[in-house]
Each structure stands twice: as structure tokens, then as C-alpha cells.
Amino acid sequence: MEIIFDPSLIALKQNISRAEEAIELAGSLLARRQICSAEYVTEMLTVYEDFGAVIVIDDGIAMPHARPEKGALQTGFSLVTTATPISFGHDEFDPVSVVIAIAGADADSHIKMIQLIASLIESDIVTFLQQENDVNSVLHFIQKQME
């Protein structure tokens, strides 16, 4: 399974004030790279509207996604960090400063993406990303974790 992740899928220190903006930006990075359709991005927003902060998976990290059949075209993820942490409405893990949007082309790929994100969380990615401003350094750090 090829996982698509390159500099075009990274946006650091973005001036975002609302969860919906962060989800939309992370999704649009995927859509521009043709990893998902525009409908998939809309579905990610719908999931957040319908289920709220369930996409906040750990301290400071949100993982917006939708079901593969909603428009995932390939397997990959995007990464957005915010200039200042924002509220997603989670009682325990707010505020969020890292948004990792995933798309899996099928159910197996979707599960593998979730496992990959879990391993990134274990590598203390939030602390690293709060201090990092260079896209290539972020790319290198994450690629090392993917090996």
C-alpha cells in the first residue's frame, strides 16, 4: 500500500480560529493532490458537525476523516498546524494545534492510516510540530516514523 505524503500536504502555523477551517484546509490539501474528492472534504465536515469532537484523538490532535466510499480516491494524509491552538469542543484533549486528515482508498487502507497516525502520536509529534517551522524537517521526521 502506497501512502501519499509530500510537502504539498503540509501547512504549518496557519492562522485558523475555528475547527471547521482547520478541517476544510486539511481536506483541501488532500483534494488538490487528488487523494480525495471535494465530496470527501464535505463529508469530513459533516462528520464533525454530526459527531463533534470524536475526531480529537489525543492531546492537541484532531484526525478528520470520512468513510472510504465517500470519496477517498487514494491513500494518504495531510498535516496542518495552527499558529495558536483552537477549540474543537473536546472535554479532555482540547485545544488542538495539529490536524491530520486521512483518506484510505479502501477499508484496509483506512485502518492502516489510523495505525500510522497512532504511531506518530507515540513519537510525540505534537511537541515536535509546535517547535518546527520547516516543511522539509516535518516531512523528514514523519517519513522516518513511517519506515
From TrEMBL:
The keyword Phosphoprotein applies. The keyword RNA-binding does not apply. Pfam families: PTS_EIIA_2. One of its GO terms (biological process) is phosphoenolpyruvate-dependent sugar phosphotransferase system. Its main location: cytoplasm. Residues 3-145 form the PTS EIIA type-2 domain. Signal peptide: none annotated. GO terms for molecular function: kinase activity. Keywords: Cytoplasm, Kinase, Phosphoprotein, Phosphotransferase system, Transferase, Transport. One of its GO terms (cellular component) is cytoplasm. It is found in: Cytoplasm. InterPro entries: Ascorbate-PTS_EIIA_comp, PTrfase/Anion_transptr, PTS_EIIA_type-2_dom. The phosphoenolpyruvate-dependent sugar phosphotransferase system (sugar PTS), a major carbohydrate active transport system, catalyzes the phosphorylation of incoming sugar substrates concomitantly with their translocation across the cell membrane. The enzyme II UlaABC PTS system is involved in ascorbate transport. This is Ascorbate-specific PTS system EIIA component. It comes from Klebsiella pneumoniae.
